[in-house]
């Protein structure tokens, strides 16, 4: 690891926050009562969590090899671009299947 | 096949392809730059019939500001969503909200929908056939009108300034 | 220090994957299971990146990128299948 200890702290912080957010996303997926609420956990928390984890890996390899290693950014970009699309498709599919939703939900979903 | 009327029919696609190629190769050598430029000019040229006409100009300065704001919002939103998820679930107030769109082009609407999906406690679920309404599901909505107003001011107006003002 | 942190993170991500797997098994409906699969592949990306850090190798990047691409395409394909009954119209 060498002398660059600020790098270690930065990478460790990024990795830990990232995996904690991924855990929060999974808890949300497991715990929330209906599908539309469960959709929120993975689309936001998991995407950000894995994004920050990947950035942590990028910082580590950049400092370690001495040259900037930016290609991990592609994964982060890709995740952030695709997460809303798959959430949208899943929400449409769920409305099409007329999934049960919590009784206290205000407003109505549309017919598909 | 219809021939493109310019050498670079889609300059932003070219820029994206070159940057993407350099990132994928993970080096900035002359050879890779050349290969990226070749790909970035050949691919838009071959596929230009599939792309919608891009007449709008991009305002790069405002785009950078907008991206910075959205990234900050995403991080803050995630702290908020984490608090909601870990807190007691009786307190959640889920709701479907109909959001009246004022944007007009398909591209800016999809940018807005993606932004909504990534920021505080909202997922965009559907769009009406006439492109006038967006259906949003919120995890914890206290006040629908306030939510609509917030999205309008924080995201829709900047997106309009970036993409739509210069539409002829 | 970093080795320990990577190990802790591997543990946390594995826990997240177990929770996701619980949702995958419990369902109760198809969209729930697709959502769980979607989350599972995103977590797999995290797992692979962490493995790359742990083994100090940059070679895992391509695998992670491939999983990201294939996962997204398959999620959209299955959701589309649920929605319309066929994938390519």
What structural class should be given to the helix and strand makeup of chain B?
Answer: mainly alpha
Structural class of chain A: mainly alpha
Q: Helical amount among residues of chain A, as a percent range?
A: over 70%
Beta-strand content of chain B: 5-15%
Number of individual domains of chain A: 1
Cα distance spanning the termini of chain A:
55 Å
Protein name (chain A): Na+/H+ antiporter subunit G
Pfam families (chain A): PhaG_MnhG_YufB (PF03334)
GO molecular function, one term (chain A): sodium:proton antiporter activity
GO molecular function, one term (chain B): monoatomic cation transmembrane transporter activity
Write the layout of secondary structure elements.
The complex is a heterotrimer of chains A (112), B (168) and C (89).
Chain A lengths: L4 H27 L3 H4 L1 H26 L6 H25 L16
Chain B lengths: L10 H15 L4 H18 L12 H27 L8 E6 L5 H13 L3 E6 L5 E6 L5 H21 L4
Antiparallel strand pairs in B: 1-3, 2-3
Chain C lengths: L1 H25 L3 H25 L5 H25 L5
Helix pairs in contact in C: 1-2, 2-3
Question: Care to describe what's here?
Answer:
The complex is a heterotrimer of chains A (112), B (168) and C (89). Chain A is mainly α and 112 residues long. Chain A is 73% helix and 0% strand. Chain A has one domain. Chain A has helices at 5-31, 35-38, 40-65, 72-96. The mean pLDDT of chain A is 82. Chain B has 2 domains: 11-50, no CATH class; 60-164, no CATH class. Chain B is elongated. By secondary structure, chain C is an all-alpha fold. Chain C has helices at 2-26, 30-54, 60-84. In chain C, helix 1 packs antiparallel against helix 2 and helix 2 packs antiparallel against helix 3 (60-84). The chains are: A mainly alpha (112), B mainly alpha (168), C mainly alpha (89). At the A-C interface, helix 1, helix 3 and helix 4 of A face helix 1, helix 2 and helix 3 of C.
